[in-house]
């Protein structure tokens, strides 16, 4: 059996993502997001997607594109503050949202990918995360249609901890700086945030890579995620507008002001 995991293009890579599929999507803000694969999903048009990702992009980029077209039915995230359409859909009962502390979300993905069904953590103990009652989905009248359940708790070393379940998904979409044909990946700086964990959680993981090398060209110490977690690799070109690297907000001053 060939170990070459490279597929022709992004459309082929997500061709079997069906309506109602669950997805783990890597990246931090707009850094390191698999934007080409997201566009391929947008073109595919499969809806009712249940997405696990640190955030949901912005209104006109990243996962925000899928959200705008009504293709996402549920989000599991830790930060959602950059997307007005996200807030509108959530408050009007169109979108179900599970908010998870950021470190807990990363560990839930890693645990799921490692075969660990659940773990205890002090994060969220003594809050509504533990007690339940958070509005996962609103009714059209503003009522709470679906509320978060309470979590099991135990005390370790005199400190309360709550039980969190590991996350696994049907698919995972990630972006890497370098990948080889066997699926070994290296991420660049902050783009490493959430990408390895998301990749581990997917039963079928698709990686878009900016540079494709042959097996053996990546030194073992440079491999951030071994190919055992990756089933498909697609090369994205830097000239592809879908591969553009954006930031949520520009906070730099004009060049002439920096000289004062």
In short:
This protein has 260 residues and is of the alpha/beta class. It is 20% helix and 27% strand. It has helices at residues 10-13, 35-44, 63-68, 84-91, 102-113, 128-131, 195-201; strands at residues 22-25, 49-52, 72-77, 96-99, 118-121, 135-138, 144-147, 153-156, 159-165, 169-180, 185-186, 202-213, 232-235.
Structure description:
With 260 residues, the protein is α/β, with parallel strands linked by helices. The protein has helices at 10-13, 35-44, 63-68, 84-91, 102-113, 128-131, 195-201, and strands at residues 22-25, 49-52, 72-77, 96-99, 118-121, 135-138, 144-147, 153-156, 159-165, 169-180, 185-186, 202-213, 232-235. The strands form 3 sheets. Strands 1, 2, 3, 4, 10, 11, 12 and 13 form an 8-stranded mixed β-sheet that branches. A 3-stranded antiparallel β-sheet has the order 5-9-8. A two-stranded antiparallel sheet has the order 6-7. Helix 5 (102-113) packs across helix 7 (195-201). The radius of gyration is 19 Å and the shape is globular.
Helix content: 10-25%
Number of strands: 13
Rg value: 19 Å
- The string of secondary-structure elements, in order, is HEHEHEHEHEHEEEEEEHEE
Largest sheet, in brief, is: 8 strands, mixed
Which shape, going by the Cα principal axes?
globular
Strand-pairing-aware structural class: alpha/beta
Identify low-pLDDT runs: none
State the end-to-end distance: 63 Å
Q: Percent of residues in beta strands?
A: 25-35%
The number of helices is 7
Mean pLDDT: 92
């Amino acid at each position: 059996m060939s170990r070459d995991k490279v597929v022709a293009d992004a459309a082929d890579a997500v061709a079997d993502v069906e309506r109602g599929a669950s997805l783990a999507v890597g990246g931090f803000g707009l850094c390191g997001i698999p934007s080409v694969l997201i566009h391929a999903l947008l073109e595919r048009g499969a809806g009712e997607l249940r997405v696990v990702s640190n955030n949901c992009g912005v209104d006109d980029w990243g996962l925000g594109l899928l959200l705008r077209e009504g293709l996402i039915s549920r989000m599991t995230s830790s930060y959602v503050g950059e997307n007005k359409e996200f807030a509108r859909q959530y408050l009007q009962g169109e979108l179900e949202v599970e908010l998870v502390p950021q470190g807990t979300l990363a560990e839930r993905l890693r645990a799921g990918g490692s075969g660990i069904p659940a773990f205890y953590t002090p994060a969220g103990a003594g809050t509504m995360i533990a007690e339940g009652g958070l509005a996962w989905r609103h009714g059209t009248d503003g009522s709470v249609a679906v509320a978060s359940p309470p979590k099991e708790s135990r005390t370790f070393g005199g400190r309360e901890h709550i039980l969190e379940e590991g996350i696994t998904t049907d698919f995972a979409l990630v972006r890497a700086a370098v990948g080889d044909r066997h699926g070994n990946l290296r991420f660049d700086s902050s783009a490493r945030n959430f990408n390895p964990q998301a990749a581990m959680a997917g039963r079928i993981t698709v990686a878009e890579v900016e540079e494709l090398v042959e097996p053996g060209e990546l030194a073992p110490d440079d491999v951030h995620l071994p190919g055992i977690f990756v089933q498909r690799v697609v090369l994205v070109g830097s000239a592809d507008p879908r591969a553009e690297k954006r930031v949520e907000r520009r906070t730099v001053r004009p060049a002439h002001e920096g000289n004062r």
